[in-house]
Amino acid sequence: MSLHPVFKAGNVALITGAASGIGLAVAKLCRSYGMKLALVDISAESLSKAKDSLGSGVLTETYARDASKLDRWQDLKSSVEQSFGGVDFLMLNAGIGLKGGWEDTDYFHKIIDTNLFGVLNGIATFLPTVRQQEHPTSIVITGSKQGITNPPGNPAYNASKSAVKTLAEHLSYDLRSSSTSVHLLVPGWTFTGMTGGAMVKDKPAGAWTPEQVAKHLEKKMGENIFYIICPDNDVTTEMDKKRILWNAEDIANERPPLSRWREEYRTELEEWMAK
Asked: What span, in angstroms and rounded, lies between the C-alpha atoms of 17 and 102?
C-alpha cells in the first residue's frame, strides 16, 4: 500500500471533532506514525479523555473551541503556531446532527454554522499555514453520503454536507498544482456518537468502526483519491456507486427529486440496483 507522505514522524496534524469517533481514530492513526497532534473539539472534558487514551511520547495539545465561531479559530491559530510552528495535516471533521422542521430556523442555523462554517472557518484560518510548508501537506474534509444522495428527513444536515462537498471540490481544484492534496472523506454507516454510538452499547453488525474508516482514509490518500467514499458491512462500494448515479439521473432523466424514495419508482429502482 502506498503511503501519503503527510503521514510522517514529526509532522503536525490538526483535527477538529477529535475527541471521539472518526476524529479520534484518525488521531490514533497519525500518532502511530509519530505525528504531533493538535486536537480540537467543543468539550474540554472529552478532549482530556481523548488525550489520555492516546498515551504519551509525542507532543499532543488539546483545544476546546466551537468550530462555528471564527474568532475562536483566530485564537486557535495563535495557540497552535506557538506550540507547533505549523500544520501539515488539517482534518476538518467537526459536525453535529439535529432534527427539526421547516419553521425551525434555529435547527438550520445550528447545523449549517457548525457543519459548513466550521469547515470554511478552518480553511480560511489555516490554509495559508498549511500551504507555507515546503513539503507535501494535506487537507481532509469530512462529508456525508447524505450530502450526495440527499435522502429525505433532514434537509438542514443534507444541505450542510452538500455545501461541504462543493467547498472541498473547489479547494481541490484551486490547489491542483500545489503540494497540498485535498480529500473529501465520506463515511458509511459508522458506529460513533453521531450515529447512535453514544446511546447504543453494542456496535450493529452492519456498521464500521471509526478505526476502519481511518484505515480506509489512509489507503485512499495513498492512492491520491479525492472522493473517499467508505462502504460498510451492509452497503458495498458497488451499491454506493449505483445510488449516486441514480440520484444524478433524477436531473438528467427529468425525474422528480428524491425519486429513490418515491413509491412509483420502486420497481424501476430495484431493477436498476439488481443490474
From this structure: 27
Question: Whose CA is closest to 10, among 28, 27, 29, 33?
Answer: 33
Amino acid at 210: P
65 burial via Cβ count (<10 Å: 0-12, 13-18, 19+): buried
C-alpha R_g of the chain: 19
Burial (CB < 10 A; 0-12, 13-18, 19+), residue 135, is exposed
Cα separation, 254 vs 264, in Å, equals 15
CA neighbor of 90 nearest in space, from 117, 66, 126: 126
Residue type, 42: I
Average pLDDT value for residue range 121-139: 96
Q: Are 183 and 167 in contact (CB under 8 A)?
A: no
* pLDDT(117) > 60: yes
- How far apart are alpha carbons 234 and 19 in whole angstroms? 27
Q: Summarize the confidence of residues 37-49 as an average pLDDT.
A: 97
Selecting among 157, 173, 227, 265, the annotated active-site residue is 157
The model carries a pTM of 0.96
195-218: per-residue pLDDT in tens?
554 556 788 999 999 999 999 999
Query: If you search the block for the grid coordinates 510552528, which residue do you land on?
Result: 85
User: What gap in Å lies between CA 162 and CA 151, rounded to an integer?
Assistant: 12
Structure-block grid coordinates of residue 111: 447545523
Beta strand residue intervals within 42-136, DSSP E = 60-64, 89-92
Q: Would you mind telling me the total number of residues written for the chain in this entry? A: 275
| Residue linked to cell 425551525 | 104
Q: What angle do CA 122, 129, 92 make, to 5 degrees?
A: 25
For residue 157, indicate whether it is catalytic: yes
Whether 105 and 59 have beta carbons less than 8 Å apart is answered as no
Q: What is the residue type of 18? A: A
